[in-house]
């Protein structure tokens, strides 16, 4: 049986980035053979990742990036916001971004099969889950081909909001970037009110009817008030109908028209949106452990 030396452990750590104790266990289990230990860690990492698969990952990072051919945007989730500051995690995100930007992936499923660091992105997420100790999940991806169009990306400083816009027409890069910042700040759900689904409208109508005091106003006035409130709400969630924060004498749509341009696509990713987060009652959890 080969002796597991500190030098062997150090070598395995440098190759795999796994924890010291995991490297020691892997080498002991494989008689100190580095190649076998790498496979042991990979298989063990898959087992660890499987154990974490039912955990909720609602923190993490969003990232938008572009080159002269296309612009991409994606989200990777973790269980806690501390991981989003982890150097290993951030290095992996940058590598994933570079790989995706050079790829021909068109959707999330294709993105997961893109190679990064000799592994697919799907495999990279499993590896990160194993080495970091939290569930890491590549959640979503989108891409816009530039062709002759203008694109603008914006990544907020907190790494939790990213925006990708695509325009047709002679809009300047500065104006396009400012509009991307507007989208980040004002969080429109839809590009225009024409895109708002009926379910959303019905829900808003219900809220308006339940929270508005109509007094003894006649039915036609009541309906007019409801429609006015609904139109106002739809404008709040529709980018082109929002007041433009950079120049509030314009609606966003009118500002873009003034530049003889047209917005083709709006993508806004915010970390964890739509994911139901688990709120942990630590006092109750500890009490339950003590009773057990």
SSE layout and pairing:
Elements: H1 6-16, H2 20-29, H3 34-51, E1 59-66, E2 70-78, H4 87-102, H5 108-112, E3 115-116, E4 119-120, H6 121-132, E5 137-145, E6 150-155, E7 161-168, H7 173-186, H8 198-211, H9 219-237, H10 252-258, E8 262-270, H11 282-291
Antiparallel strand pairs: 1-2, 2-5, 3-4, 6-7, 7-8
Helix pairs in contact: 1-2, 1-3, 2-3, 3-6, 4-6, 8-9
Q: Supply the CATH class of the domain at 54-146.
A: Alpha Beta
| Strand segment count | 8
Order of helices and strands: HHHEEHHEEHEEEHHHHEH
Unreliable stretches, pLDDT < 50, 5 or more residues? Answer: none
Shape: elongated
**Percent range for helical residues?**
40-55%
Mean pLDDT: 87
Structural class: alpha+beta
Q: Biggest β-sheet: count, sense, barrel?
A: 3 strands, antiparallel
Question: What is the CATH architecture descriptor of the domain at 54-146?
Answer: 2-Layer Sandwich
- CATH fold-level label of the domain at 54-146: Tetrahydropterin Synthase, Chain A
The helix count comes to 11
Distance between the first and last residues' Cα:
41 Å
CATH superfamily membership of the domain at 54-146, which one?
Elongation factor Ts, dimerisation domain
Tell me the β content.
15-25%
Radius of gyration: 25 Å
Spatial strand sequence of the major β-sheet: 1-2-5
How would you portray this structure in words?
Among the domains are: 46 residues, Helicase, Ruva Protein, domain 3; 93 residues, Tetrahydropterin Synthase, Chain A, CATH 3.30.479.20; 41 residues, no CATH class. By secondary structure, it is α+β, with helices and mostly antiparallel strands. The model has no long low-confidence stretch (mean pLDDT 87). The relative contact order is 0.12. The strands form three sheets. The chain has a three-stranded antiparallel beta sheet. A three-stranded antiparallel beta sheet has the order 6-7-8, covered by helices on one side. The radius of gyration is 25 Å and the shape is elongated. Associates with the EF-Tu.GDP complex and induces the exchange of GDP to GTP. It remains bound to the aminoacyl-tRNA.EF-Tu.GTP complex up to the GTP hydrolysis stage on the ribosome. GO terms for molecular function: translation elongation factor activity. It is found in: Cytoplasm. It comes from Spiroplasma sabaudiense Ar-1343.
